[in-house]
Backbone:
């Protein structure tokens, strides 16, 4: 199985801050990586697929980069509605494993 | 608009069975691989199972292999997850997922005596 390691597991930030979350795969996954946002008691929402492609309707302050084993989700100018938990997922091979999540909290 | 609506969750005793359903609309269901993902209370996301477009290929996580069966009825635009020999550690919200984009709202399965 491919292990996905996210860091940090949590962070505190202020509105307007630039936030970066990293995800590392235990083996190469090309660009087969997705990012999700989950708010409490809600289903995850897809933000990015193919490592860097923004899903329709997702604000442009979200961006993704990387390929192979190292990936990054960046939120420029954090907004109040962005406080949530973020997960990466590889879909290169089964099982389609998830990272452990990064909780973004208000500083 | 893509919609995925899960149903069938509830309280079941250890060793019991339950069948989850996911009704899909707003897209051509028969042309997409579908997935089940679960989330135990306060925990992260765990991949459970997948099924190919025509149902000919399936995948199961080791934790559910031999106990869960995924299936689909493309004529009814519906995805299923038959769960048997349920354990307390299967307690979770179960999500139906289309590819890597749309998720249903989830259905809670509680395994407890």
Residues:
């Amino acid at each position: 199985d491919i292990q996905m390691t996210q860091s940090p597991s949590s962070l505190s930030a202020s509105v307007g801050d630039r936030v970066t979350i990293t995800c590392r795969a235990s083996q190469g996954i090309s660009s087969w990586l997705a990012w999700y946002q989950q708010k409490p008691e809600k289903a995850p929402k897809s933000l990015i697929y193919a490592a860097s492609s923004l899903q329709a309707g997702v604000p442009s302050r979200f961006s993704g980069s990387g390929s192979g084993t190292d990936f990054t989700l960046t939120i420029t100018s954090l907004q109040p509605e962005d406080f949530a938990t973020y997960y990466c997922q590889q879909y290169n091979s089964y099982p389609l494993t998830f990272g452990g999540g990064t909780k973004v909290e208000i500083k | 608009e893509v919609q995925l609506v899960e149903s069938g969750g509830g309280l079941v005793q250890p060793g019991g069975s339950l069948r989850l359903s996911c009704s899909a609309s707003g897209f051509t269901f028969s042309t997409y691989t579908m997935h089940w993902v679960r989330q135990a209370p306060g925990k992260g996301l765990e991949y459970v199972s997948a099924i190919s477009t025509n149902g000919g290929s399936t995948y199961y996580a080791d934790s559910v292999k031999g106990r869960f069966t995924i299936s689909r009825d493309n004529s009814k635009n519906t995805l299923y997850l038959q769960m048997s020999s349920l354990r307390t550690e299967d307690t979770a919200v179960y999500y139906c997922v289309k590819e890597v984009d749309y998720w249903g709202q989830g259905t809670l399965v509680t395994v407890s005596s």
